[in-house]
Structures are given as structure tokens and as C-alpha cells.
Description:
By secondary structure, the chain is of the alpha/beta class. It has one domain (4-227): 3-Layer(aba) Sandwich (Rossmann fold), CATH 3.40.50.150. It is built from 10 helices and 8 strands.
Amino acid sequence: MTARSRWDREIIYGLIPPAATVLDLGCGNGELLSRLMADKQVKGYGIDRDITCITRAVARGVPILHADLEESLAWFPDAFFDFVVLEQTLHVLRRPFLVLGEMLRIGRAAIVSFPNFAHWQVTSTLTRTGRLPSSFSRSRRGREMNIYPLTAHDFLDWARERGATVVQAFCLTGGSVLPLLPDRITRAEEVLFLIAPAGDVRAGSVAGGGCPDDTTPRIDDATPRIVD
């Protein structure tokens, strides 16, 4: 794996197969899309509202839309992309579940990563001090406060209520990237999910390898145990 800050990007890169169509929400400087476009001939598009990031993405040759992703997803028709990606952005949105629903509407599959606010250090510090740990108070980019702190359980509850299929799930814990299993939720610092719309099992057939060593199992059967 690369540095901690990029663990989920490596997973995302491995999950997306050659020639897929990808929409990257909050794509930043376009590093992920430019790499996918160069290495896997992916047809990629990004959305971001930060003009500095947009300038850098354009310089990389990434097609990008300057817009607020919470307002712009309605522009896209159903099932328009193979994958819609939301990397480390969910928790700074005002309406995260609306965005998740739109991702499943416009994509055959969605990939979402975010910090897990159920991590034991977060709950312990919050109980002891009444404050979130400083490392969880701001987004990874450092420019935005976390607006909607979510846990892995929150996400899985939403997926169950929506009828979405959790195809794969991963977590970062103690510097290691592992499959997300029930006994790892409170030790997971960050989590990543590959999900598919209700009744749509195509995500498994279009996804790539996942972890670089391709040893992480599918967790469709494990999902109810995680939720419960």
C-alpha cells in the first residue's frame, strides 16, 4: 500500500476495470482520474467546486465540471456511468444520503470512502471530553469541517433500507487494509464500500481486482452480520 492518506485511492484504482466510465465526485486535482485514464483507458469525468483543484485537474487533461455535487447530480440520466466515486467527501456534505441515492441512480456501482466515527478513539474522546479528536474534526483536505459524521453502521443501515448490495467492503485499521468484518468496525479508522443498486448484481462483474494482492473476499453474505 501507499501512504495512509492514499490507501482508499489504491483500492478504488484496483476496483475499476479498463474502459469503464467513471464519475469522480469531489475529484480534487484529478490525480485518480488521470491515472485511470492513462493506465486503463477509462472514460472519466470529475466534479469539484474548488477552482484551484479544477485548474490542476484540467492541467492533467481531466474533463471536469465546476459545480456543487449536491446540486448537480440530477443533471445525469439513470445508469449513465459504470462507477460513481466519492472519496473522503461524504462527511462534509449537507445531504449525504441524497447524494448516495443519486450515485446509485446514475451509476451501475458506487464506491464510497469516509472516516468511521465509530472508531473507539473517537467515541472514547467524545465521552471523556465532549469533543471529537482533532484528526476527525476536519475533512482530509483540511479546508472543511465535518458536517455529517457517519459510522460504518450508519452506512450499512442506509444500504439495507435502500436495498442496495454491498459488494465489497474494506477498512483501514492500525495501518493495515483489511476486509471490513463485524469485529473490526470499532477498530476501523476509515472504511470503503463498493455498492450496487437494489436488484442489480452487475457491479461484481464489472469490478476489477480490489486490493493489490487481490485476496479480499466479497462480503455479500457478511453484510447482514455487520448490520446486526
